[in-house]
Amino acid sequence: MFGMRRPLRRALSLGLPTAWGATAVVYKLTCPLAQQDGLGARLVTSAVFFAVGTGLVQHVRRTLLRELKQARRVAGAAQRVLLRPLPPRVEGLDVAAAQLSADRGASVGGDLYEVIATEHGVRVVMGDVRGHGLPALGTVAALLGSFREAVHDEPDLDGVLRRLERALARHLRERHREEHPASGRTPDTPVAEEFVTVLLLEIDAEGGVRALNCGHPWPYLLRGTEVGPLARADPLPPLGPFPLPPELPATHCGHLRGGEFLVLYTDGAEDVRDTRGRFFPLAQTLTKAVHDHPVSPEQILRTVLNALVRHTAGRPTDDVAILVLGGERARRPTGGARGTARPATTRPRPTTRP
After folding, report:
1. What element of type H or E holds 105?
2. DSSP H or E stretch at residue 31
3. 107, 300, 307, 354: which sits with the fewest CB atoms below 10 Å from its CB?
4. d(CA 261, CA 189)
5. Pairing relationship of beta strands 260-265 and 226-229 according to DSSP bridges
6. Alpha-carbon gap, residue 260 to 253, rounded angstroms
7. Which of 19-23, 41-45, 333-337 shows the lowest per-residue confidence on average (mean pLDDT)?
8. Residues 305-320: pLDDT tens digits?
9. What angle do CA 151, 157, 160 make, to 5 degrees?
10. How many CB atoms lie within 10 A of CB 275?
11. pTM, full prediction
């Protein structure tokens, strides 16, 4: 039954324009009125051809709209498979996340995020692929697939990051081979114009937070009514243009306690402008959000998204992804893990930004 619908729909899509065209030709060749040169005859003939042309235009328009809706449904389904809905709670951490796409009317973007509980702790990734829309989906799929496997296999964050680097390089080589089959060879290094900013976090059972940052904005830490960056260390370059250094020491960011929240985001959340050219005040918006009670990841996320939509008049110029986690975690820091999360003071080895 369903297999017969598609050929029937194709036959109708071809048959209707043919019928309209045949009607115009038959009228012109056989109708006596069409052979006359009088004003009235010409007006009737013009009306007939105008009706035929209008019918053809409307048919083409409906066909294109139907194909566009189908493409958006397919793209949206692919995006939902890649950026699957996060559980509301992961190992005692409340979680909320959302994405806005710069492609008007579409849900496909170049941002990625994931939160997974492992035996090594809760591991989080937030990334931003260069570009947006359908071309970025392949890169998002390659990185998320690698992350979801590597977080369970690799005991340290540096191992996870190196797995992501290899997955990205492999994906770019394969894409280059598909896009340029006549070149006859696969490049040894990724295309320099392609890059991904990546932030990896690891939160252990005592709330200790460690991070590896490749060109991504540092998360905001919400502690009471205070809002500030989780760390101030210089990030590594984004993945893609340059290889990772031999040593990848993680940045220690203190401890995440009950009632505190981390807000991870892509740079579109701060770089987006309104009609007057003003940047979105993310830090001020978060400060307003923590004054509301009760504070929860859902409430923080809702406040930021509503403010973003108002700021951009519903038309963001870049993809935006926001991930909020924290809350009243059941397990508290023990032993030597005292104090709350605070901006890291240790700085890694200096690196050169691209």
Report:
1. none
2. none
3. 354
4. 39
5. unpaired
6. 13
7. 333-337
8. 999 999 988 777 777 8
9. 50
10. 9
11. 0.71
Give the integer Cα–Cα distance in Å for 307 and 281: 9
Distance CA 292, CA 300 (A): 9
Gap between the terminal Cα atoms of the chain? 56
Q: Is 267 exposed, middle or buried (0-12, 13-18, 19+ CB in 10 A)?
A: middle
The pairing of beta strand 111-118 with beta strand 208-214: unpaired
What is the C-alpha separation between 111 and 130, in angstroms, rounded? 9
The ranges assigned to domains in the chain are: 2-75, 86-327
List b or e across 298-307, with b for residues whose CB sees 16 or more CB atoms inside 10 angstroms. Answer: ebbbbbbbeb
Q: Specify whether the CB–CB gap between 257 and 317 falls below 8 A.
A: no
Look at phi and psi of residue 168 and say left if phi exceeds 0, alpha if psi is from -120 to 50, else beta.
Answer: alpha
The pairing of beta strand 196-203 with beta strand 226-229? unpaired
Phi and psi, residue 333, nearest 5°:
-60, 140
Amino acid symbol at 330? A
Distance CA 214, CA 243 (A): 11
86-327 to CATH, choices 1.20.120.80, 1.10.10.10, 3.40.50.720, 3.60.40.10: 3.60.40.10
- The C-alpha torsion from 220 through 242 and 128 to 347, rounded to 10°, is 0
Model confidence pLDDT, tens digit, residues 167-196:
999 998 887 777 766 655 555 554 546 889
